[in-house]
Design goal:
single chain, mainly alpha, 2 domains, 53% helix, flat, Nucleolar protein 16, Ribosome_biogenesis_Nop16, nucleus
Amino acid sequence: MPKAKGKSRRQKYSYNLNRKRLYRSARRRAAPRIACSHIRHAWDPKKSVAQNLADMGLAKDPNKAIPIPRRQQLGMEMESDEWEPGKKIVRKPYVLNEMEYEASLPEKKSNTLSRDLIDYVRYMIQNHGENYKEMARDEKNYYQDTPKQIKRKINVYKNFYPEEYKDFIASLKQEKMDVQ
């Protein structure tokens, strides 16, 4: 099969192109990347980073915001441990309030198992019960998992979906009672 024509040719260096100017203009245009949407919406591009953060009530440098008190001598302790910052005007307090509210929300469980793994575990439990050696010899054990690996997968399923697992075991017991 023939090669693509443009790929094998050597790229020529352009001596007339000023790369320094291109690099500087690209750096100048780039705005700071802001991950938090609350900060992004309240950001003023005409102000500096320090001014924007001060308006929102946030600190640019945490070491300067809450300094560690120095002890004057090793044996003596300071009389007051409280640190009183200078009064700063917070022009955009809603940003801080929204961030605190978002941080107080409970964290969602994002851990889920694949549908294939759930079906595999349910099939193994349904056909073999707690016999892991028999599960390892099953024809549906495509990845040739050892009995310990299968046991680990079942335990992961138990931990991720405890209610579903209990319902599944109860339905299996009900089927056995119906058969007898």
